[in-house]
Specification:
The complex is a heterodimer. By secondary structure, chain A is of the alpha+beta class. Chain A contains 13 helices and 12 strands. Helix content of chain A is about 50%, strand content about 15%. Chain B has one domain. In chain B, helix 2 runs antiparallel to helix 4. In chain B, about 30% of the residues are buried. Classes of the chains: A alpha+beta, B alpha+beta. The interface between A and B is large, with 52 and 47 residues. Chain B: Belongs to the ERF4 family.
Amino acid sequence: MSAVMITRKVRKWEKLPGKNTFCCDGRVMMARQKGIFYLTLFLIIGTCSLFFVFECPYLAVHLSPAIPVFAVLLFLFVIAMLLRTSFSDPGVLPRALPEEANFIEMEIEAANGNVPSGQRPPPRIRNVQINNQIVKLKYCYTCKIFRPPRASHCSICDNCVDRFDHHCPWVGNCVGKRNYRYFYLFTLTLSLLTIYIFAFNIVHVVMRSVDHGFLNTLKETPGTVLEVLVCFFTLWSMVGLTGFHTYLISLNQTTNEDIKGSWSGKNRGQNPYSHKNIIKNCCEVLCGPTYPSVLDRRGLMQEDSPAAANSEGPCSFDNPVAQTTKTTAPLIPNEHTPDDVKPSIAAEKSSGPKDDQPPAAMLPPLASPETDAETSIAKNQ
Amino acid sequence: SSKFHNLQDMQHTASLVTKVFIQRDYSEGTVCRFQTKFPAELDNRIERALLEQTVKTLNSYYVEAEKVGGQSYLEGCLACATAYIVFLCMETRYEKVLKKISGYIQEQNEKIYAPRGLLLTDPIERGMRVLEISVFEDRGSSGSSPSSSMSSCSTAR
């Protein structure tokens, strides 16, 4: 064992695999590309600012001071929902540690039996019965787990997400189990805000035009034209999106399932997750328990910077979590298996460590499990 | 973590032999539930009834945490009314139950599992995917268990 080792405490988020960016020391978690999110923020804040500057003084005096007050509350709620959706963990499933990955590999190989050489092994699928419906669980080659029902791998963030809905570039994050309700409330309240601003813009223009004339009104409040344009285009898309998600919630389906047609067409009415009752479905999705994050981004862990090669002995045993982080780059987990475990795993299965290589190299292009329709980027394994 | 320290206090010469993973049981949907099927590798390490009891108790805790009922509605509506800002200072019911679970697992480890050379890992540390049971062996013992666990591994398949 090496005598020279520099250990420093790092937060676990620094070593998480996947393509997320973290801010505020792990408290904030987003996708890598945030440009469109900034655009969303800019549009919302910009349009509302114009509304407060140009329309609100007139409306507060001539109609009611409640109008700007309600607008402020609605605006704050929209921003709160947007930030919650964007900054929270959507329900990322952590990747399997080496021992777990090996355990699953062994089970798969035992189940497949002997595959004659030259033939491709069968796709890695596990069948479970949920409410009298057979659901197929696919194996994720990146995360080395069988995905739980309704989970899916997002290629943009390179994570498996529980109850994966879709990856939304407008909020700069995936929408999954943990932040779906915030996303829905965001679309709903943004629709309301857009309708509100649009309506009161019209009211304001009409009222002012009666006194001053139409063209003068536009000259006095130039922001109006911009607001009406933004609101007009936003309105149709937001109302449409809110309606679509209301429909999905009432059926307890995800966007992912809807796109793939899992429970439509010939499978209509067979969704095993639905309570067959619109109110129950809505309550479960919107008022269900708030699931905690299983990622533990802010936990502390030891990072060993070894001076020599064989340094992963005693320290790694105390901090098994350290092993997770070192398996980010290589797909073969056994390179970083702690020395304590290596002999036992090797003893259990004589060719254990080497078996990971052929499956990983052979299977991905053939089984191509990650053909999730919602991602526009082709995944190459 | 504290669990390791407990185990190391009690079994200074222990070394990790293997890990057994109890998988999730999805027969009732996406609710968190672990299989009560007894893994063959632990045949001669622990009585079936004890492990079954542990898993059943854990499952009941998860049912309590994920229950969609009056209290969760109240919590949800109240939080929504405050734009979920209240979650920044309040502990949700799920988090409270998770704390109870972690205490239960620690207690089970100390009373039942560590004396038998086993260690349970809280499922939350494995993404709620598996209940990991680490199997330890005293270096000083005759070492019959590793080979018997190997043979039971191969015959179980």
